[in-house]
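S1.2 Input.
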Amino acid sequence: MVDYFNRSAVSIKEINSNMLIAYERYMRSERTMTRINQLGNEVTTKEKGLSDSGLHNKMRDLRTLFNAARDHYNNEDLGIYRIKHYPFKKYKVGSSPLTKKRNNTLEQVLTIRDCVTIPGSRAELAKELYMLSFYLCGINAVDLYQITERDVRNGRLDYNRSKTQDKRKDNAFISIKIVDEVSLYWKNI
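S1.3 Output.
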């Protein structure tokens, strides 16, 4: 939004349904952005317009931020309404578009498994993490990182999926049989 308004401060009153429509057009178009990188240097890049799913995520996050501001500054119990308007009544974010399946083919998996990498290199680490995730039924990196010896029992890996454990009654419990190939990539088993 800083780029869209060309300033660092924006009044919530400026966020209205017409602005959201114009902002959507802006986000879909190619734009030049200047940011400070990790070294403290200014870097200017040309960004492509957002896809349907990228736009949906940005507008969903903006709606979430707007709702949080309304919750913080308004007090319905006392009849205090500092933010009276609600642009998302007219501008609908909608549901997220379906994403294309990105499953790898058997040939792709074998190519990754069999590629020769330099020991200790980032390429070797990437290959080993990919194969470990593959053999553990697509386990996420965050869950892989959090696994301890306690999670391995009777030849199975039992864990709660971090991403969804707070959203499910079963705490997103997952139990995976540890196949022999896992020991090639996971030295601690």
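S1.4 Remarks. The first strand starts at residue 31 and ends at 36.
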